Amino acid sequence: MAVVAWLEAAGIDATLPSPDRVYDAYLGGSHNTAVDRSFVDQVEQILPPIKPLARNNRSFLRRAVKEAAAAGITQFLDIGSGAPTVGNVHEIALRANPEAHVVYVDSNTIAVQSSLIKLQEQNVTDRVTMIQEDLRNPDGILDHPQTRALIDFDKPVCLQMVALLHFIGDEDNPADLIAHYRSRLAPGSLLVMSHIALDDASQEQKDQVAAFLDAYKNTTTRLYTRTKAELERLFEGWELQEPGIVHLQDWRPDNPVDREPSAYHLAWCGVGRKA
User: Which SUPFAM superfamilies match (predicted)?
Assistant: First the structure.
Protein backbone atom coordinates (compact mmCIF):
# COMPACT_ATOMS: atom_id res chain seq x y z
CA MET A 1 0.00 0.00 0.00
CA ALA A 2 1.31 3.48 -0.89
CA VAL A 3 2.42 5.61 2.05
CA VAL A 4 -0.35 8.20 1.58
CA ALA A 5 -3.07 5.54 1.34
CA TRP A 6 -1.66 3.87 4.43
CA LEU A 7 -1.75 7.15 6.35
CA GLU A 8 -5.32 7.86 5.29
CA ALA A 9 -6.41 4.33 6.21
CA ALA A 10 -4.91 4.89 9.68
CA GLY A 11 -6.76 8.20 10.02
CA ILE A 12 -3.55 10.26 9.87
CA ASP A 13 -3.45 13.69 8.23
CA ALA A 14 -1.16 13.28 5.21
CA THR A 15 -1.37 16.96 4.24
CA LEU A 16 1.31 18.03 6.74
CA PRO A 17 4.93 16.88 6.62
CA SER A 18 5.88 14.62 9.53
CA PRO A 19 9.39 14.93 11.04
CA ASP A 20 10.09 11.19 11.05
CA ARG A 21 9.13 10.84 7.37
CA VAL A 22 11.06 14.02 6.55
CA TYR A 23 14.16 12.56 8.21
CA ASP A 24 13.68 9.41 6.13
CA ALA A 25 13.57 11.63 3.03
CA TYR A 26 16.77 13.43 4.12
CA LEU A 27 18.45 10.02 4.10
CA GLY A 28 17.01 9.03 0.73
CA GLY A 29 14.52 6.51 2.15
CA SER A 30 11.17 5.46 0.71
CA HIS A 31 8.88 5.85 3.74
CA ASN A 32 7.77 9.40 2.97
CA THR A 33 5.19 11.25 0.90
CA ALA A 34 5.24 13.92 -1.80
CA VAL A 35 4.35 16.44 0.92
CA ASP A 36 7.41 15.37 2.93
CA ARG A 37 9.69 15.52 -0.11
CA SER A 38 8.36 18.94 -1.06
CA PHE A 39 9.14 20.13 2.46
CA VAL A 40 12.68 18.71 2.16
CA ASP A 41 13.16 20.63 -1.10
CA GLN A 42 12.11 23.83 0.69
CA VAL A 43 14.35 23.10 3.66
CA GLU A 44 17.38 22.52 1.42
CA GLN A 45 16.92 26.06 0.11
CA ILE A 46 16.89 27.33 3.70
CA LEU A 47 19.59 25.09 5.18
CA PRO A 48 21.69 23.58 2.35
CA PRO A 49 23.68 21.19 4.60
CA ILE A 50 20.57 19.45 5.97
CA LYS A 51 21.16 16.16 4.13
CA PRO A 52 24.86 15.94 5.10
CA LEU A 53 23.76 16.73 8.67
CA ALA A 54 21.30 13.82 8.60
CA ARG A 55 23.97 11.50 7.19
CA ASN A 56 26.47 12.61 9.85
CA ASN A 57 23.87 11.94 12.52
CA ARG A 58 23.17 8.48 11.12
CA SER A 59 26.88 7.73 11.05
CA PHE A 60 27.23 8.79 14.70
CA LEU A 61 24.42 6.38 15.58
CA ARG A 62 26.19 3.58 13.73
CA ARG A 63 29.47 4.19 15.55
CA ALA A 64 27.80 4.46 18.96
CA VAL A 65 25.95 1.17 18.47
CA LYS A 66 29.17 -0.55 17.36
CA GLU A 67 30.99 0.79 20.43
CA ALA A 68 28.18 -0.36 22.73
CA ALA A 69 28.26 -3.83 21.20
CA ALA A 70 32.05 -3.94 21.51
CA ALA A 71 31.63 -3.11 25.22
CA GLY A 72 29.45 -6.21 25.60
CA ILE A 73 25.99 -4.60 25.58
CA THR A 74 23.43 -6.78 23.83
CA GLN A 75 20.23 -4.81 24.60
CA PHE A 76 19.24 -1.69 22.69
CA LEU A 77 16.27 0.64 23.26
CA ASP A 78 15.96 3.17 20.43
CA ILE A 79 13.38 5.85 21.24
CA GLY A 80 12.19 8.07 18.39
CA SER A 81 13.64 5.66 15.86
CA GLY A 82 11.41 6.83 13.02
CA ALA A 83 10.66 4.90 9.84
CA PRO A 84 13.07 2.15 8.74
CA THR A 85 16.07 3.29 6.72
CA VAL A 86 19.38 1.72 5.72
CA GLY A 87 21.66 0.99 8.66
CA ASN A 88 19.05 0.46 11.35
CA VAL A 89 20.22 -0.25 14.88
CA HIS A 90 19.26 -3.91 14.78
CA GLU A 91 21.23 -4.51 11.60
CA ILE A 92 24.37 -3.10 13.24
CA ALA A 93 23.77 -4.80 16.60
CA LEU A 94 22.95 -8.22 15.14
CA ARG A 95 26.00 -8.08 12.93
CA ALA A 96 28.09 -7.55 16.06
CA ASN A 97 26.22 -10.16 18.11
CA PRO A 98 23.47 -12.39 16.67
CA GLU A 99 21.98 -12.68 20.18
CA ALA A 100 21.35 -8.92 20.50
CA HIS A 101 17.84 -7.68 21.30
CA VAL A 102 16.46 -4.38 20.03
CA VAL A 103 13.26 -2.49 20.86
CA TYR A 104 12.37 0.45 18.63
CA VAL A 105 9.95 3.10 19.90
CA ASP A 106 8.13 5.77 17.94
CA SER A 107 4.91 7.70 18.38
CA ASN A 108 4.15 7.76 14.66
CA THR A 109 1.76 5.10 13.35
CA ILE A 110 3.28 4.82 9.87
CA ALA A 111 6.79 4.46 11.30
CA VAL A 112 5.65 1.64 13.57
CA GLN A 113 3.58 -0.21 10.95
CA SER A 114 6.24 -0.03 8.25
CA SER A 115 8.95 -1.07 10.71
CA LEU A 116 7.00 -4.11 11.86
CA ILE A 117 6.52 -5.23 8.26
CA LYS A 118 10.23 -4.84 7.55
CA LEU A 119 11.16 -6.80 10.69
CA GLN A 120 8.80 -9.60 9.69
CA GLU A 121 10.33 -9.70 6.22
CA GLN A 122 13.79 -9.95 7.77
CA ASN A 123 12.62 -12.74 10.08
CA VAL A 124 14.07 -11.10 13.21
CA THR A 125 10.92 -10.59 15.30
CA ASP A 126 12.17 -13.00 17.95
CA ARG A 127 14.94 -10.50 18.74
CA VAL A 128 13.64 -7.17 17.44
CA THR A 129 10.34 -5.35 17.82
CA MET A 130 8.74 -1.91 17.49
CA ILE A 131 6.22 -0.32 19.83
CA GLN A 132 4.13 2.81 19.50
CA GLU A 133 4.78 5.09 22.46
CA ASP A 134 6.02 8.58 23.32
CA LEU A 135 9.30 9.50 25.00
CA ARG A 136 7.28 11.47 27.55
CA ASN A 137 5.74 8.26 28.86
CA PRO A 138 8.83 6.42 30.12
CA ASP A 139 6.99 3.81 32.18
CA GLY A 140 4.71 3.10 29.22
CA ILE A 141 7.84 2.29 27.20
CA LEU A 142 9.84 0.46 29.86
CA ASP A 143 6.90 -1.61 31.13
CA HIS A 144 5.41 -2.35 27.72
CA PRO A 145 4.91 -6.13 27.37
CA GLN A 146 6.97 -6.27 24.18
CA THR A 147 9.78 -4.32 25.81
CA ARG A 148 9.78 -6.60 28.85
CA ALA A 149 9.78 -9.65 26.58
CA LEU A 150 13.05 -8.63 24.94
CA ILE A 151 14.91 -6.52 27.50
CA ASP A 152 16.14 -7.55 30.94
CA PHE A 153 16.52 -4.32 32.93
CA ASP A 154 18.76 -6.05 35.44
CA LYS A 155 21.43 -5.98 32.70
CA PRO A 156 22.94 -2.99 30.86
CA VAL A 157 20.94 -1.38 28.08
CA CYS A 158 22.03 1.04 25.36
CA LEU A 159 19.35 3.75 25.43
CA GLN A 160 19.26 5.90 22.30
CA MET A 161 17.69 9.34 21.95
CA VAL A 162 19.35 10.28 18.69
CA ALA A 163 18.03 13.43 16.97
CA LEU A 164 15.03 13.23 19.30
CA LEU A 165 15.22 15.77 22.11
CA HIS A 166 15.20 18.71 19.72
CA PHE A 167 11.50 17.87 19.28
CA ILE A 168 10.94 18.19 23.05
CA GLY A 169 10.44 21.63 24.55
CA ASP A 170 11.62 22.70 28.01
CA GLU A 171 8.01 22.61 29.20
CA ASP A 172 8.21 18.80 29.02
CA ASN A 173 11.22 18.75 31.40
CA PRO A 174 13.59 16.60 29.32
CA ALA A 175 16.15 16.43 32.17
CA ASP A 176 13.54 14.87 34.47
CA LEU A 177 12.51 12.44 31.76
CA ILE A 178 16.09 11.30 31.20
CA ALA A 179 16.63 10.97 34.97
CA HIS A 180 13.57 8.73 35.15
CA TYR A 181 14.91 6.47 32.42
CA ARG A 182 18.30 6.37 34.15
CA SER A 183 16.68 5.32 37.43
CA ARG A 184 15.21 2.24 35.71
CA LEU A 185 18.41 1.10 33.99
CA ALA A 186 21.15 -1.17 35.34
CA PRO A 187 24.69 0.09 36.01
CA GLY A 188 26.80 -0.07 32.87
CA SER A 189 23.93 1.16 30.70
CA LEU A 190 24.65 3.79 28.06
CA LEU A 191 22.75 6.88 26.91
CA VAL A 192 23.37 7.95 23.30
CA MET A 193 22.15 11.44 22.35
CA SER A 194 22.50 13.93 19.52
CA HIS A 195 20.85 17.34 19.19
CA ILE A 196 20.70 20.07 16.58
CA ALA A 197 22.57 23.20 17.69
CA LEU A 198 23.83 26.56 16.51
CA ASP A 199 25.95 27.93 19.39
CA ASP A 200 29.19 27.01 17.58
CA ALA A 201 27.96 27.98 14.11
CA SER A 202 28.81 30.95 11.92
CA GLN A 203 26.39 33.85 11.75
CA GLU A 204 25.28 32.71 8.31
CA GLN A 205 24.54 29.23 9.66
CA LYS A 206 22.71 30.70 12.66
CA ASP A 207 20.46 32.65 10.31
CA GLN A 208 19.87 29.50 8.26
CA VAL A 209 19.03 27.42 11.32
CA ALA A 210 16.65 30.11 12.59
CA ALA A 211 14.78 29.93 9.27
CA PHE A 212 14.93 26.11 9.47
CA LEU A 213 13.26 26.17 12.89
CA ASP A 214 10.63 28.50 11.49
CA ALA A 215 9.86 26.04 8.67
CA TYR A 216 9.21 23.25 11.20
CA LYS A 217 6.33 25.28 12.62
CA ASN A 218 4.43 24.09 9.53
CA THR A 219 4.94 20.40 10.37
CA THR A 220 3.31 18.18 12.97
CA THR A 221 6.08 18.93 15.50
CA ARG A 222 8.08 22.00 16.58
CA LEU A 223 11.88 21.95 16.59
CA TYR A 224 14.21 23.44 19.22
CA THR A 225 17.96 23.98 19.52
CA ARG A 226 20.05 23.54 22.66
CA THR A 227 23.58 24.63 23.44
CA LYS A 228 26.49 22.38 24.35
CA ALA A 229 26.09 23.45 28.00
CA GLU A 230 22.39 22.54 27.91
CA LEU A 231 23.16 19.11 26.46
CA GLU A 232 25.76 18.59 29.19
CA ARG A 233 23.05 19.22 31.78
CA LEU A 234 20.87 16.56 30.15
CA PHE A 235 23.73 14.10 30.74
CA GLU A 236 23.77 14.92 34.47
CA GLY A 237 24.12 11.70 36.46
CA TRP A 238 25.85 9.91 33.57
CA GLU A 239 29.60 9.51 33.11
CA LEU A 240 30.39 11.10 29.75
CA GLN A 241 32.48 8.78 27.62
CA GLU A 242 35.46 10.03 25.63
CA PRO A 243 35.62 12.35 23.76
CA GLY A 244 32.74 13.99 25.67
CA ILE A 245 30.18 16.21 23.97
CA VAL A 246 31.44 17.01 20.50
CA HIS A 247 30.20 17.63 16.98
CA LEU A 248 28.83 14.56 15.22
CA GLN A 249 31.88 14.00 13.05
CA ASP A 250 34.25 14.13 16.04
CA TRP A 251 32.72 11.29 18.06
CA ARG A 252 35.19 8.45 17.43
CA PRO A 253 35.28 8.87 13.62
CA ASP A 254 36.14 5.78 11.61
CA ASN A 255 35.62 6.93 8.05
CA PRO A 256 36.70 10.09 6.15
CA VAL A 257 33.16 10.35 4.73
CA ASP A 258 31.96 11.08 8.27
CA ARG A 259 33.71 14.44 8.17
CA GLU A 260 31.50 16.33 5.70
CA PRO A 261 32.46 19.96 6.49
CA SER A 262 29.26 21.75 5.45
CA ALA A 263 27.26 20.48 8.44
CA TYR A 264 30.12 20.44 10.93
CA HIS A 265 28.87 22.95 13.52
CA LEU A 266 25.16 22.14 13.43
CA ALA A 267 24.78 19.44 16.10
CA TRP A 268 26.24 18.13 19.35
CA CYS A 269 26.37 14.52 20.45
CA GLY A 270 27.61 12.37 23.28
CA VAL A 271 27.45 9.04 25.07
CA GLY A 272 27.04 8.69 28.82
CA ARG A 273 27.46 5.65 31.06
CA LYS A 274 25.52 4.86 34.23
CA ALA A 275 28.00 4.04 36.99
Answer: S-adenosyl-L-methionine-dependent methyltransferases
